[in-house]
Amino acid sequence: MTSVIPAQRTVRVKLATSSVEHDAARRLRHTVFCQEQGLFNGDDRDEIDLTALTLVAIGDTADEVIGTVRIHQQGEQVWWGSRLAVARSARRQAAVGSGLIKLAVGTAHALGCHTFLAHVQQQNVAMFTQLHWLALSESVLHGRPHSLMRADLRCYPPIDDAAVGLLCTKVAP
Ligand SMILES: CC(C)(COP(=O)(O)OP(=O)(O)OC[C@H]1O[C@@H](n2cnc3c(N)ncnc32)[C@H](O)[C@@H]1OP(=O)(O)O)[C@@H](O)C(=O)NCCC(=O)NCCS
């Protein structure tokens, strides 16, 4: 079950530290990537999940996850973000997606990342550009157009305590 976020509500994004949070993140990924987007048939998990760190956005109750993303290291100082998902009812309400991206890149930065990359679905390129990411190339993944994008690390200061995480909220225009 997901809840609607009232105006100006703040949401905590943090490292998933319990099996409850991990399970809820997995369910949200299934809802978004398998059921809503149809990118995967039945299961979106892969071998990256064996080593990735999972970040979550916490909803009204401690066991309600309304957003998630995973990060993993591949290569000396290269990190990737993937499976960014926000529950439909929570989108564009409390900057949950932006908060997850901030925590993802900041956490990797604190762990020695020099290059942070993601394959971004085409419809989200404008959002990532706004968040200081640069498009490098285009490709088709899972049958959909994606842009390989790199975060500008100067805009993402290191975040040392991902287990505490960050509060995110929508800034009034
Ligand atoms: C993409 C996604 C994670 C964004 O999450 P979100 O919590 O809605 O994002 P935010 O609220 O932080 O968005 C911040 C800003 O980014 C921009 N933005 C967000 N989604 C956008 C979209 N689909 N198109 C264009 N701009 C968008 C807007 O400027 C928004 O500010 P606004 O609400 O004042 O207009 C969410 O829509 C989602 O889960 N989509 C389905 C799965 C998916 O596409 N995952 C990403 C794969 S690359």
UniProtKB/TrEMBL annotation:
Coiled coil: none
Lineage: superkingdom: Bacteria
SUPFAM superfamilies documented for this protein: Acyl-CoA N-acyltransferases (Nat)
Record-annotated N-acetyltransferase domain positions: 11-163
One Pfam family of this chain: Acetyltransf_1
The protein's name in its UniProt record: GNAT family N-acetyltransferase
Naturally occurring in which organism (per UniProt): Duganella lactea
